[in-house]
Each structure stands twice: as C-alpha cells, then as structure tokens.
Design a protein that fits this description.
By secondary structure, the chain is an alpha+beta fold. It has 3 helices and 3 strands, in the order H-H-H-E-E-E. A 3-stranded antiparallel β-sheet has the order 1-2-3. Helix 2 runs antiparallel to helix 3. The longest helix is centred in the middle third of the chain and has 47 residues. It is rod-shaped, with a radius of gyration of 36 Å.
Length: 162
C-alpha cells in the first residue's frame, strides 16, 4: 500500500509542477510582451534622467574649477605680499609695484589675465603694512550652468620686516 500512495503523490506533484511551469511560461510571455510595450517609456525616462545626471556632473566640475581658480588667486596674492615684505626700503632693494605685479602673475600662470593692485600703508619702511590684491574673472565653460563670469578676488596684508 505504501508504494501506491507514493506513486499518487509523485503524480500529483508532477501535475502541480507542470501547472506551475505552464503558469510561469505564461507569466514570462506576458512580462516580455509588457516590456516590449514599455521600451518607449524607458527611453523617455532615460533621456530625462541622463540630462539631470550630466547637468549635475558638469556642475560639480565647474564648481571645482572655480574653487581651484580661487585657490590660485589667493596663493598668488599671499606670495606677492611675502615678496614685498622682505623687500622694504632698508633691505637695499625696495620692491616696486611692477616687480610685485610681475611676481604675482608669475605665480598665477594658469590664470592668464590676473589684475594686481599693491599698496603700502603708510610707506615702504619696516613696520608699515603692504597689501596685495589679486583679481581674476572666472568664465564658465558651460554657459548657463553658472553665471557666465564671476570675479574672484583675494587680498593679503603683512607687515614689512626689512
């Protein structure tokens, strides 16, 4: 008696398995049919998402360029002040405005038109202050992403030591 029940169970299990596999193939056929109808919707979704993705990527790159350019401007202004404080009137070779401008521009080589303003408060004697301001007009590579032109400005002050 035991073997007959096993055969019946096997038969029932295989019948259920056949129904299940038949249902799966029908579901698979329906899902394939549905996905072929949704190809156009997927293309539209991809177009919308890719525009936002690339806008985000280009925004990050442009913002990084602006931060880098500001770092170069700030560093060149600091270097110009350091150049000026060791070349006061008592150093034997007092720095002039054009020397400081040339030095600052040589430190800001990647940024072509850097404008430099130098002033001494009150004069070039030791104990006086020297101030160097560097300015650069940053232009975006991608128009419309950032304002097309942004002025980056950095000012540095130090006391003349020699």
């Amino acid at each position: 008696m035991q073997p007959k029940m096993c055969r019946i169970r096997l038969f029932r299990n295989t019948a259920k398995g056949a129904e299940r596999s038949l249902g799966r193939t029908r579901e698979a056929q329906v899902s394939v049919f549905r996905s072929s109808r949704q190809h156009g919707a997927s293309l539209v979704e991809f177009a919308l998402v890719s525009v936002l993705f690339f806008l985000l990527i280009f925004g990050i790159v442009e913002f990084g360029r602006a931060i880098w350019a500001y770092g170069v401007v700030a560093h060149s202004a600091r270097e110009g002040v350091r150049y000026a404080i060791v070349r006061g009137r008592e150093s034997g070779r007092a720095a002039t405005v054009t020397e400081i401008q040339d030095y600052v521009r040589s430190r800001a080589v990647p940024l072509a038109p850097v404008q430099v303003t130098t002033s001494w408060i009150p004069d070039k004697e030791p104990g006086s202050e020297v101030q160097v301001q560097a300015q650069y007009n940053f232009t975006s590579l991608v128009p419309g992403l950032l304002p097309y032109s942004v002025t980056l400005r950095s000012t540095s002050k130090m006391v003349i030591s020699f």
